[in-house]
């Protein structure tokens, strides 16, 4: 009995050690994480740890037990457990960044948020008392809502069938939708605005327009939806 | 940094912050918000909007400047960032700071039949020197003084687009653009005095134009704003008239000279002559006459100045002490004569000195340090100026800001 349990422990230890070694996937993709899939994502938010035991559901308790045993990936340098940390904003900063100049990208985003806030506060002070509640002053909620409004629901994929390629409507993953919204926002601000305005000015104008469901990015999204609707007939060409 | 004390101050206010938040949905009744707003107002805001009646009790609290005063008194005096805040929040709230209060108390007690006292605000970047200057100037304005405010002396020694040789003295140079813009702002601030003060000398501008004796000062200023060529000489004339006239029993006004970035007048300039040699600040009419005004050989007023490294030329970023920015402080007379220790510790170079024999040096004010006022600033910005982001996490937000400030 003792021997078998010891053997079990040794074999488990050997397999765990194997998982912690440097790892390559069996099918090597172009972009892949160097971590073994055995590793779990780190939880950075402080609120997640301050919840008492009783509040958690069964799955969350399971997850907690798992986290006690499994190894966890290292958190990136730019993630913080600060109150001001927003994963969506961080993602946007990384997308705006060019040549690795994250300081500049972050500066632009901070100025954008400040600009949005200033415009909204000025608008707030000018509105009559009855309508003041409708003005949203929090730049973070404006940013989130604007991006939500820009996200497309379906996308188009080019599928070749019988020598001809068709634009087929396909469902998009959440990540892809978020990526497309951010990409459209950034390209729109970089290309279609007046050359002499600052990026933060352009971004704040476009974000406020998207918040009100106007503007070029929303128009692009609507056009994509119209194309998808027009090509509904080819939807069955999709095999996944 | 006494976070515990600050948190105690915050706790009663966090509860009703939720009623002041500005989210789209779920807004509490405005009546409840208005009632509970009276609580934090007494802690972070004062109703004492007159600088003359402010005392140590209001240090760290915000007082509101009336919009009329802002428009008239500070067409060019406030820092750019502050002007943005005024535009956004629709009100101008200035914090009552201890060095400004001290300067104002000296201004109240000074004997104006003796030569003008000179005050100098110095300190590290961002410690509130310009704002303290504006506070003192606001006090002078409310007391009915004539205010001669030069918003940034650095702007007169750099980036000069038009440099003309002076018509009055051939070795000097004129700066018409800077002079006209300054005269325009001077006119806005001192409108009531322009008709009361009469000039005592005849000024000849060209063969056909001259300003006679006994004409009001307003005519002189108009001459400067309309004839751009002679505007620098007009500035010199205005300064001379004010300097000679104030303090005499017949003229019932006092003069407050406020200069921001006074180290520019004795530093170097980046303006180049046609043969690419640098212009000495002394060779500029505006600077030469301002230096004459800063000498304390006139009575009936006060000279309030600020050091500034931010716009200065050829000075290292870390320099903030008067010795570093103004040059050699040769002729300071500390209370004990011949004590070299005074040079090492600028805080000793204080105290009342009406009779400094030196040409250059000025009486120093205490340096400004931004200590426990952080909390009031944070509270002001978060609560009153509707920048409530995460109202649920307001307390942790302020705690984090305080921590970040204390380590920087």
From TrEMBL, chain A:
The keyword Nucleus does not apply. One of its GO terms (biological process) is translation. GO terms for cellular component: mitochondrial inner membrane; mitochondrial small ribosomal subunit. It is found in: Mitochondrion. Residues 80-232 form the Small ribosomal subunit protein uS7 domain. Gene3D superfamilies: Ribosomal protein S7 domain. Keywords: Mitochondrion, Ribonucleoprotein, Ribosomal protein, Transit peptide. The keyword Lipid biosynthesis does not apply. SUPFAM superfamilies: Ribosomal protein S7 (SSF47973). Belongs to the universal ribosomal protein uS7 family. This is Small ribosomal subunit protein uS7m. It comes from Oryzias sinensis.
From TrEMBL, chain B:
Keywords: Membrane, Mitochondrion, Ribonucleoprotein, Ribosomal protein, Transit peptide, Transmembrane, Transmembrane helix. GO terms for biological process: apoptotic process. Pfam families: DAP3 (PF10236). GO terms for molecular function: structural constituent of ribosome. The keyword rRNA processing does not apply. The chain crosses the membrane at residues 377-395. GO terms for cellular component: mitochondrial small ribosomal subunit. Belongs to the mitochondrion-specific ribosomal protein mS29 family. This is Small ribosomal subunit protein mS29. It comes from Oryzias sinensis.
């Amino acid at each position: 009995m003792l021997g078998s349990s010891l053997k079990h422990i040794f074999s488990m230890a050997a397999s765990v050690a194997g998982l912690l070694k440097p790892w390559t996937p069996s099918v090597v993709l172009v972009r892949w994480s160097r971590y073994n899939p055995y590793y779990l994502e780190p939880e950075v938010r402080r609120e997640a740890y301050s919840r008492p035991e009783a509040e958690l559901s069964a799955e969350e308790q399971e997850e907690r037990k798992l986290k006690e045993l499994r190894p966890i990936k290292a958190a990136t340098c730019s993630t913080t457990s600060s109150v001001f940390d927003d994963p969506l904003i961080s993602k946007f900063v990384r997308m705006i960044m060019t040549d690795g100049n994250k300081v500049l990208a972050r500066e632009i985003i901070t100025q954008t948020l400040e600009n949005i806030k200033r415009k909204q506060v000025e608008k707030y002070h000018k509105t009559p008392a009855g309508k003041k509640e409708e003005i949203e002053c929090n730049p973070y909620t404006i940013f989130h809502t604007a991006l939500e409004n820009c996200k497309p629901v379906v996308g188009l994929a080019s599928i070749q069938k019988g020598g001809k390629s068709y634009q087929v409507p396909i469902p998009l993953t959440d990540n892809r939708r978020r990526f497309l919204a951010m990409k459209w926002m950034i390209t729109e601000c970089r290309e279609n605005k007046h050359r002499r305005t600052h990026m933060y000015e352009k971004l704040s104008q476009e974000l406020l327009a998207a918040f009100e469901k106007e503007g070029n990015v929303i128009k692009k999204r609507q056009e994509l939806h119209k194309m998808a609707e027009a090509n509904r007939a080819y939807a069955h060409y999709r095999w996944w | 940094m006494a976070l515990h004390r600050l948190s105690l101050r915050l706790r009663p206010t966090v509860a009703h912050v939720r009623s002041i938040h500005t989210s789209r949905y779920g807004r509490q009744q405005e009546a409840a918000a208005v009632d509970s707003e009276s609580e934090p107002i007494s802690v972070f805001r004062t109703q004492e909007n007159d600088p003359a009646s402010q005392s140590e009790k209001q240090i760290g609290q915000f007082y509101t400047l009336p919009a009329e005063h802002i428009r008239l008194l500070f067409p060019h005096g406030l820092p750019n960032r502050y002007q943005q805040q005024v535009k956004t929040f629709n009100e101008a709230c200035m914090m009552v700071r201890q060095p400004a209060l001290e300067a104002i108390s000296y201004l109240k007690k000074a004997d104006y039949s003796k030569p003008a006292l000179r005050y100098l605000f110095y300190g590290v970047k961002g410690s509130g020197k310009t704002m303290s200057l504006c506070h003192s100037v606001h006090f002078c304005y409310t007391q009915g003084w004539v205010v001669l405010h030069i918003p940034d002396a650095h702007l007169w020694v750099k980036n000069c687009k038009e440099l003309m040789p002076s018509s009055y003295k051939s070795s000097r140079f004129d700066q018409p653009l800077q002079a006209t813009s300054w005269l325009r702002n001077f006119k806005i601030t001192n409108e009531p005095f322009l008709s009361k003060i009469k000039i005592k000398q005849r000024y000849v501008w060209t063969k056909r134009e001259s300003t006679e004796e006994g004409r009001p000062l307003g005519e002189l200023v108009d001459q400067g704003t309309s004839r751009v060529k002679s505007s620098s000489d007009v500035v010199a004339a205005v300064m001379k008239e004010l300097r000679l006239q104030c303090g005499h029993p017949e003229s019932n006004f006092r003069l407050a000279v406020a200069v921001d970035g006074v180290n520019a007048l004795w530093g170097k300039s980046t303006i180049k002559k046609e043969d690419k040699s640098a212009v000495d600040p002394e060779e500029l009419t505006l600077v030469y006459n301002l230096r004459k005004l800063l000498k304390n050989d006139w009575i009936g007023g006060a000279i309030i100045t600020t050091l500034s490294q931010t716009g200065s030329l050829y000075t290292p970023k870390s320099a903030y002490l008067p010795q570093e920015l103004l040059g050699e402080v040769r002729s300071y007379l500390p209370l004990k004569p011949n004590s070299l220790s005074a040079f090492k510790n600028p805080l000793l170079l204080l105290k009342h000195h009406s009779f400094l024999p030196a040409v250059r040096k000025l009486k120093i004010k205490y340096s400004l340090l931004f200590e426990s006022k952080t909390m009031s600033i944070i509270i002001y910005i978060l609560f009153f100026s509707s920048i409530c982001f995460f109202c649920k996490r307001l307390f942790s937000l302020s705690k984090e800001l305080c921590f970040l400030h204390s380590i920087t």
